[in-house]
Amino acid sequence: MPAYSISTTEPAIAYGVVALSQPFEELISPNLPVLVQTILLPFRDKIVYDGILNSFNISFGPGIRRGLNKSFKEAKERQGIVTSLPKSDLPLTRNLPKAKKATKPPSKEGKEEVLHMIVDLIDQFCKEHLNEEYATLCRKLAEKLGRKRPSPLLQGSPNAWASGIVRAIGGVNFLQDKSQTSYMRSTDIDHYLGTSTSSGAAKLSAIRKMFGMHQLDPNWSLPSRLDENPMVWMLQVNGFMMDVRQATREFQQIAFKKGLIPYIPADR
After folding, report:
1. Which of the listed residues 34, 63, 79 is the one where a domain comes to its end?
2. Which long-range contacts (CB under 8 A, 24 or more apart) does 67-74 make?
3. Among the listed ranges 65-74, 114-123, 138-147, 248-257, which one has the minimum average pLDDT value?
4. What is the count of structural domains for the chain?
5. Which pLDDT value is given to residue 81?
6. What is the 3-state secondary structure of 160-194?
7. pLDDT, tens digit, for every residue of 99-109?
8. Residue range(s) defining the domain that contains residue 144
9. pLDDT tens, residue by residue, 132-167
10. Which DSSP string do the residues of 114-133 spell out, in sequence order?
11. Beta carbons within 10 angstroms of residue 228's beta carbon
């Protein structure tokens, strides 16, 4: 009996893959869904894999599972279960949905479901590999992306956006610097979140452009690193740059009330 899999491409494709000598339930976790990476091959009018099946230790929350089920159903309606290669680029005629004259904008519920899927991925990743500080900032960035009109999160896979968000926050806080306590390469982020390096890099580039993010960006620095971030405390006064930490407490109070600094340094 073949196992059913969904591609990570857009739009998703549902494949029926036949196991080789060992059943799939013995190779991967019986708790579905499972994220795996392999190469599909044609064999006697069936689809098999190349013998190398890499599974990722990622658990999926209820929102993601609902999204995967929805993608699987849509793929089946669009062109059925693909059971042989090469497949036709044309959709199958059976179960083909009727074309609509106009595409309706995504519903509020649809946007929230996508955002929930992305946040689930981020929370799980930060829990296993980073910390709650990173998780909080990543959630904040995901929510800002979700509030944009139209939301860019509706274009592309949730895994790619989750990777781009973690990459963006990590870039501000030097996550790729081996001398830091929290260290991780961009390619590892993509790997753990189940997306390609090119997809993660593309979403990172889009996020940086949208928010003007950069290293040491005060708006996206970890709270524990605000003290050592010079960009947080540099203010322009009468045309000159000054470190507000060297100013009087009264000046610091004024800057704090105006929202120019996160807290009053003299009180610490």
Report:
1. 79
2. 67/113, 67/114, 67/117, 67/158, 68/6, 68/33, 71/6, 71/12, 72/4, 72/6, 72/12, 72/14, 74/11, 74/12
3. 65-74
4. 3
5. 83
6. HHHHHHHHHHHHHCCCCCCCCCCCCCHHHHHHHCC
7. 333 344 445 55
8. 108-220
9. 999 999 999 999 999 988 889 988 889 999 999 999
10. HHHHHHHHHHHHHHHHS-HH
11. 10
**Closest alpha carbon to 266 in 256, 234, 242, 216:** 256
Closest C-alpha among 117, 3, 126 to residue 68: 117
Is residue 207 located within the same domain as residue 232?
A: no
C-alpha 248/C-alpha 266 separation (Å) is: 8
C-alpha 80/C-alpha 87 separation (Å) is 11
On whether residue 88 sits in a domain, the answer given is no
Q: What is the mean pLDDT of residues 128-134?
A: 92
pTM over 0.90: no
- Same domain, residue pair 202 and 124: yes
- For residue 103, tell me if it sits in a domain: no
